[in-house]
């Protein structure tokens, strides 16, 4: 009757060792997951459904796909002032629950860089060029974020973060967010698997 009790600690020890031992792939090399190594391959696509914020009528739909050394965003945003320019950024949190979208936090900035214009010196990883609305108040998005990933779980992954459209254009200088004004639309970057 005591025999099962004596083997129980041994079984627990073996189970713990098996749970923490490195896994081997087919080539026999152990898998290691570090902060520098993505936990999984990038996703092939994500969708962003932009919903109004701050009592605006701005909405839209974007797609995000890995491309080159980054992620490309494309789609349309409507409900903007005709002929106006508007800032658009990736923000650090995928939370659009606040009426003014403040729940999305600051710009996505894993490097701690100052705000600026993408491709022209230091800038946040989530900084993009301003959108230009046409005469109907629709802006076409065609933006490329360099140095970010999509859905791999790494430090530069934008999946699960928010895209914010602002009421004003980004001046690309003012800290910390380019003096872009109210957040008029917010959408979470959702991976489509």
UniProtKB/TrEMBL annotation:
Record's function text: Destroys radicals which are normally produced within the cells and which are toxic to biological systems.
Cited InterPro entries: SOD-like_Cu/Zn_dom_sf, SOD_Cu/Zn_/chaperone, SOD_Cu/Zn_BS, SOD_Cu_Zn_dom
Entry's cofactor comment: Binds 1 copper ion per subunit. Binds 1 zinc ion per subunit.
Family that this chain belongs to: Belongs to the Cu-Zn superoxide dismutase family.
Cofactors required: Cu cation; Zn(2+)
The keyword Oxidoreductase belongs to this UniProt entry's keyword annotation: yes
Location of the Superoxide dismutase copper/zinc binding domain: 61-189
Region named Disordered: 24-43, 101-130
Pfam families, alphabetized: Sod_Cu (PF00080)
Gene Ontology terms for molecular function: copper ion binding; superoxide dismutase activity
Signal peptide: 1-21
Enzyme Commission number, as recorded: 1.15.1.1
Protein name, per record: Superoxide dismutase [Cu-Zn]
Keyword Membrane among record annotations: no
GN (gene name): yojM
Keywords carried by this UniProt record: Copper, Metal-binding, Oxidoreductase, Signal, Zinc
């Amino acid at each position: 009757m005591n025999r099962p009790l004596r083997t129980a600690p041994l079984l627990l020890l073996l189970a713990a060792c098996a749970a923490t031992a490195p896994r081997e792939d087919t080539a026999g090399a152990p898998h290691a997951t570090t902060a520098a190594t993505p936990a999984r391959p990038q996703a092939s696509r994500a969708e962003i459904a932009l919903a109004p914020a701050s009592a605006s009528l701005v909405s839209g739909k974007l797609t995000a796909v890995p491309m080159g050394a980054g992620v490309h965003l494309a789609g349309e945003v409507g409900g903007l002032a005709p002929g106006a320019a508007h800032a658009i950024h990736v923000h650090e949190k995928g939370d659009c629950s606040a009426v003014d979208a403040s729940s999305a936090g600051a710009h996505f900035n894993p490097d701690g860089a100052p705000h600026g214009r993408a491709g022209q010196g230091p800038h946040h990883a989530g900084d993009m060029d301003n959108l230009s609305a046409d005469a109907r108040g629709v802006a076409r998005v065609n933006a490329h974020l360099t140095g970010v990933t999509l859905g791999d779980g790494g430090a530069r992954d934008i999946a699960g973060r928010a895209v914010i459209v602002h009421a004003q254009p980004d001046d690309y200088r003012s800290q910390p967010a380019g003096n872009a004004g109210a957040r008029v639309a917010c959408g979470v970057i959702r991976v489509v698997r």
